[in-house]
């Protein structure tokens, strides 16, 4: 059975990628997960400089998903390449480096640093960071901001560039198109959904940052819909993310149009989830007589179904 998938020139052994922020820098998991058995590892988002992130509480569980407002705590790109990348290389991990910038120049500068080092397979652009020059509006919530970040990074690196789209927009497909036009090699979606939770007894927000991002199974159907919508308008490979916790969930994203997927919150619940997912994918392939898992991508059958936009 062939579980490999291709994202542009990049060949992954299977479609499973550890989602950024949910797998540290990868090396922390190296004793319990064979990093080379994963399709890839997307490391925690990196700015140019070290960052402390928000004070606690930064994570809250809700009945329908997890809320986080970590504030992009990180060691900065230079410490990452010096302290983490060598071990990732040794462990033969396929490394996606997730990067954030407060300005377009910062994205470019981080990409330049990464391009000088062996062992980086792709750059994932977290465009959910506020653009300080434009008064704090998130790059990924503006079509021009999205286009500008992708083109700036495209200009300085030959590494595959994968912007990660935010779901906190009305028409996510137009953002995928902007990313494609700016020279992206793939898009990943989605990041977390803006959300909040309040302790009714103290009347205080549960997160120190007041608002945070919702992840986990609750967001999956929305993310699947967004992948499906993007598939209609771009030719780029799509990496589906959002609430994946079983092989069936992986397949749902692939059938909707994803080439690969990322798993975040579910790996906190079960750090050994990867073997379970791979076994489940093999079982599905055997049951349906599929030799190449990549053939599943985009095979959704919408015949005898008609989409009415206003359906409620
Ligand atoms: C604790 C936590 C930290 C995260 N940090 C990042 C990050 O640094 N960069 C990023 O692009 N996404 C980050 N994310 C978003 C995830 O990569 C993923 O897009 C999101 O959680 C949805 O997937 P899931 O439902 O499988 O968790 C983070 C998510 C969580 C829960």
Please supply descriptive tags for the structure shown above.
312 residues; alpha/beta; TIM Barrel; 30% helix; globular; binds flavin mononucleotide
In brief:
By secondary structure, the protein is α/β, with parallel strands linked by helices. The chain has helices at residues 77-90, 104-115, 143-156, 172-181, 220-233, 247-256, 265-269, 273-288, and strands at 5-7, 10-12, 16-18, 40-46, 59-62, 65-68, 95-99, 122-126, 130-131, 137-138, 161-165, 187-189, 193-195, 198-199, 204-205, 212-215, 238-241, 260-263. The strands form five sheets. An eight-stranded parallel β-barrel has the order 3-4-7-8-11-12-17-18, surrounded by seven helices.
């Amino acid at each position: 059975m062939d579980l490999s998938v291709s994202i542009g020139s990049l060949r992954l052994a299977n479609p499973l990628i550890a989602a950024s922020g949910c797998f540290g820098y990868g090396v922390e998991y190296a004793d319990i997960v064979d990093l080379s058995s994963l399709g890839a590892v997307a490391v925690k988002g990196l700015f140019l400089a070290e960052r402390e992130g928000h004070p606690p509480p930064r994570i809250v569980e809700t009945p329908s998903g997890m809320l986080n407002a970590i504030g992009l705590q990180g060691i900065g790109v230079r410490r990452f390449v010096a302290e983490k990348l060598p071990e990732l290389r040794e462990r033969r991990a396929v490394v996606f480096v997730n990067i954030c910038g407060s300005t377009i120049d910062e994205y470019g500068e981080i990409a330049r640093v990464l391009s000088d080092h062996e062992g980086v397979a792709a750059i994932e652009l977290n465009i959910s960071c506020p653009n300080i020059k434009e008064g704090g509006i998130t790059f990924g919530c503006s079509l021009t901001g999205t286009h500008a970040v992708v083109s700036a990074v495209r200009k300085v690196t030959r590494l595959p560039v994968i912007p990660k789209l935010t779901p906190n927009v009305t028409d996510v497909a137009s953002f995928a198109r902007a990313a494609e036009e700016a020279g992206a090699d793939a898009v990943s979606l989605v990041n977390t959904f803006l959300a909040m939770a309040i302790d009714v007894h103290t009347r205080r927000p549960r997160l120190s940052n007041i608002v945070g991002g919702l992840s986990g199974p609750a967001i999956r159907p929305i993310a699947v819909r967004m992948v499906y919508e993007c598939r209609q308008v771009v030719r780029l490979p799509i990496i589906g993310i959002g609430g994946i916790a079983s092989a069936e969930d992986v397949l749902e994203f692939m059938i909707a149009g994803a080439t690969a997927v990322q798993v975040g919150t579910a790996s906190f619940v079960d750090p050994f989830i990867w073997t379970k997912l791979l076994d489940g994918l093999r079982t599905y392939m055997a049951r349906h007589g599929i030799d190449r898992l990549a053939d599943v991508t985009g095979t959704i059958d919408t015949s005898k179904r008609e989409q009415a936009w206003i359906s409620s």
